[in-house]
């Protein structure tokens, strides 16, 4: 499509996600969907959303493409033949038949991948081959391509932090996988990432990790995820003599989220400091999907904590404001690095200070003694001390709340993205300098040779 033809209509952005918030409420899904809606709010732009689905959703008989409640700008793509080790799609024929056909018919001006889980990194090559002049942007939400341990960058032994990956380090975590296989995995993934024209990350910490891994820093830009703002909840009304002593956890219930650290710390705060009216309110799902050992440990800890802990189960995004109204503090006790948890922005939007682990994206987004409190990662004892400080310092909540900065909304997030998209389009058409100047896409011929070798020599 020529520059003149683009100018005759709104520019089209295709957002590709590994899941749709209707079926999966992870941070990446919510962030990509907010961006999709934010771009469509901007004059001169229209956006489309392609999200992968799999079991328990059933595939259509004749096509992997499905509509979602007849929403014309949203489509689901069924994919369930996936190699988790290589982040690879085994069904390359089906990829061409439905996925590529839909995108070619759509004729987007920019494609923004928000993940490749379930879809496979081959989707990047397939679209670059089919639409070689269309800029492709990858938004990274975590470290899955760097770390085979669920992208957590923690050691498989005792879940201690991993500071830098390498084939040798990865083999220490997975002794049954030879070092050579991790070397091939890394080369395989980088081959496809290098075909993208630009990268976006919601945190500087994640950029540093991917640069250490070998991706060029000049192709990165940090843009915080944008929120859909519908209602802002005022502070919880306090009874006479009441304290800011209601603590909330929102998110997935898993060992990596550090809930075992949080529940144990809460159970061990002194009776004098905790009192009769303090409470930890846990809103989170998927406990039943966790390893049995963690489920057993979590249930034992909550039983020991007694009425100090209230477990409410899963929630929907639309419910969060009504749930936040009973919470004073948000706690993020993750034992892995995190990147840019959406719940941080949601807490700040509603004026709730945060108590968070002092690592990764949490330490970057929450400033100690400014808009929240840090505690030493995975340390029950340090979290006990911080909770005790909070309960003993009546004016701390007000001081921290007063310094919270309102996070960006989806429109501002979309505007920052379209600045990059415009620059890439200008560079592709020869009308200006793209961001960055050296982000030249791989040619279709080069990509074909690489993909053929990768398929012919499986790991």
TrEMBL record:
Residues 26-230 form the Glycosyltransferase subfamily 4-like N-terminal domain. Keywords: Glycosyltransferase, Transferase. It holds the Pfam family Glycos_transf_1. Residues 239-403 form the Glycosyl transferase family domain. GO terms for molecular function: glycosyltransferase activity. It comes from the Bacteria. This is Glycosyl transferase. It comes from Skermanella aerolata. The lineage of its organism: Bacteria, Pseudomonadati, Pseudomonadota, Alphaproteobacteria, Rhodospirillales.
């Amino acid at each position: 499509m020529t520059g003149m033809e683009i100018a005759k209509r709104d520019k089209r952005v295709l957002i590709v996600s590994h899941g749709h918030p209707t079926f999966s409420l992870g941070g990446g899904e919510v962030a990509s969907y907010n961006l999709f809606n934010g771009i469509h709010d901007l004059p001169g732009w229209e956006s489309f959303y392609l999200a992968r689905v799999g079991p328990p959703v059933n595939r259509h008989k004749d096509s992997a493409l499905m509509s979602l409640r007849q929403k014309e700008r949203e489509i689901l793509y069924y994919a369930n033949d996936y190699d988790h080790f290589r982040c690879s799609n085994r069904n390359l024929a089906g990829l061409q038949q439905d996925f590529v056909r839909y995108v070619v018919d759509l004729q987007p001006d920019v494609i923004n991948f928000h993940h490749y889980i379930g879809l496979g990194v081959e989707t990047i090559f397939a679209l670059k081959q089919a639409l070689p002049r269309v800029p492709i942007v990858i938004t990274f939400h975590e470290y899955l391509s760097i770390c085979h341990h669920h992208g957590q960058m923690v050691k498989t032994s005792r879940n201690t932090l991993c500071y830098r990956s390498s084939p040798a380090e990865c083999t220490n975590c997975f002794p049954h996988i030879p070092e050579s296989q991790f070397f091939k995995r890394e080369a395989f993934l980088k081959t496809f990432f290098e075909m993208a024209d630009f990268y976006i990350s919601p945190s500087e910490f994640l950029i540093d990790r991917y640069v250490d891994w070998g991706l060029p820093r000049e192709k990165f830009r940090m843009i915080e995820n944008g929120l859909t703002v519908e209602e802002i909840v005022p502070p919880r009304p306090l009874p006479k003599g009441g304290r800011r002593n209601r603590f909330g956890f929102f998110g997935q219930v898993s060992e990596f989220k550090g809930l075992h650290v949080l529940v144990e710390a809460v159970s061990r705060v002194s009776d004098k400091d905790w009192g009769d009216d303090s409470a930890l309110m846990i809103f989170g799902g998927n406990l039943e999907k966790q390893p049995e050992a963690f489920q057993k440990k979590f249930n034992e800890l909550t039983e020991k904590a007694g009425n100090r802990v209230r477990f409410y189960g899963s929630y929907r995004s639309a419910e969060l404001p009504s749930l936040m109204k009973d919470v004073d503090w948000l706690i993020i006790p993750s034992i892995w690095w995190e990147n840019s948890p959406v719940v941080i922005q949601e807490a700040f939007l509603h004026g709730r200070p945060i108590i968070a682990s002092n690592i990764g994206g949490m330490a970057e987004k929450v400033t100690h003694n400014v808009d929240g409190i840090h505690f030493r990662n995975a340390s029950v004892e340090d979290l006990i001390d911080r909770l005790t400080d909070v309960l003993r310092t009546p004016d701390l909540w007000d001081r921290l709340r007063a310094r919270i900065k309102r996070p960006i909304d989806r429109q501002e997030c979309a505007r920052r993205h379209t600045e990059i998209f415009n620059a890439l389009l200008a560079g592709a058409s020869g009308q200006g300098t793209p961001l960055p100047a050296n982000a030249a896409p791989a040619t279709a011929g080069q990509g074909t040779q690489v993909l053929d070798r990768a398929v012919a020599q499986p790991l």
